[in-house]
Amino acid sequence: MRRLAWHQKLALALAAWSVLAIFVPAVVQTPRAVSTLHAYLAGLRTRRYAGAGWGTLYATPAGFTLWSLRWVTSFDIPQGTSAVAFRFLPATCPGGGAETATVSAAGAELARWALGPDPVWHTVFLPASAPVEEAYRPPYIPVEVAFHCTLSPASGMSALSENRHVGAALTGIRLIRRVP
Amino acid sequence: MTARAPGQASSRVDERRLVGFQIFWTVSLFGLCALILYLQAGQTLNRALVSHVVSEWDARWYLMVAAKGYTWNGIATQYQDVAFFPLYPLLVAGLRFIVGSPQLAGVMLSVAFQCAAAVILYRIYAMAGGQGEARRLTALYLLFPAGIFSLFVYPTSLMNALGFFAVYAYMKGWRGWAFAAAGAATAAGPALVALTVGLAVYDAVTKPEGVLRRIPLYLVGFWGVALFGVWLGVSVGAPLAFNTVQVAWHGPVSLPLEVVRSLTLSPFVNGLLSFVRSPAERPLMYVQDTLVAMAFLAGLLYLVWRGEWMPVLLAGAGFVVLMVFNEAPYDVPLSFSRLAYPFLFLLPMGKGIRDVLERRWATWLPLAFAVWSVAWVVIWCRGLWVE
Fold this sequence. Notes:
Order of helices and strands of chain A: HHEEEEEEEHEHE
Radius of gyration of chain A: 22 Å
Oligomer: heterodimer
CATH architecture of chain A: Sandwich
Structural class of chain B: mainly alpha
Number of domains of chain B: 1
């Protein structure tokens, strides 16, 4: 076999690293071994979401009707999380109106709150039953927060035509770990 | 009689055809969107709806900057306009005076820069290979799913055009223009900073004599982002506000574990697995980003194997930056694919990649890209009406 050039060795090393790093975690789903890793990664996530600043997620306009605006933001929560606490900034609905936030996971509505003027922590407990977890994507649980704004047709159209930025904001997320 | 260089005329014809194709493709996709909206809910494309259609996702931020300039309230964690780079909104604000509507100005610029990007890319490929290859590869560029961002008020095509021009100028030996254009690209979007780095490293390594004297030239490759900082310093009193906000969104990169984890691509692979369970817009984005990331990685490694350093350095710098900072896919569809778009299409500068793309299976790629782009437009237009 001919001797490989240094860049060919580099390419092989990088390819080996890529295969190990990409495919092994994806393919090896041995629960016990992987759950240790997941718990570790979940710990990292928890810390990142818990602090001030991190976990600030913003709603994206998903569409409109004349009567309501709805923004959805979704994010992944590590598996093994039993509850999540959210804190919202007062929503900035154009023209005012009732503002609510709905939290759902795996398509099921988990909680709904009316948003008050003060940002307070709201806690939602994630379902732990097996059929629901089956739908989750390991190692994270996709959770969706939808903000709702009720608008008059005039204020809705006005917001659209002026392309005004409207939205509500999540200002914090705290993860509460499930005790094994 | 002066003899014309062989192929010169057909090269111009090719370029005109590519521009024509891009315009045809834009009109077709908009037409498809109008049809879907009509069939779905009987909506006709009135002015408010058209403005909504082209102002999807982050477009509203660019329009806001174009209308009102920058604001900054000092809250790093808040989603705000300083994170959106100024060159594109500046051009929108300028063209708006002529055409009236900022949305129309934005789309005109996006399509025009996509045409320019295609022509410049065609020339890059033609210099590297030949006209036949250049034609096919540039068509692939235009049909690539992230190309649908040239339908929107988005700076993607401007970034691509400037980035490609920098590479083209460098290949022609116009070093000053190359770094000037790369610097302009950094005023259009932060990811293009990687291109300047790649160009500078390539230039320094391949031409080590007098490299110290060229350091000021390399710094010119950052003039856009530097000027943006100065602008913010003067207008809102915080020259690094854009950086503060971007870091708050992406999260601090804590070496080494986060970086290593980012480089595993595992968020993308998780997305790929999730598609099996619930195919929808978000997993579709993950699948696409996964495929693009893997193809990108494979292409890079193949070029490293072959020792084709120019595309490796130019595209590789972008790949590393995107993998590190783009750890989790965003809300915006096509996130990785869109940001990787200019870097990905620098790979075929390498002969190895061009040879691969000449194989029989690759003749299906344009069709696959076109179908995928149409799927995006269908999904996106259907989502425009929310009950």
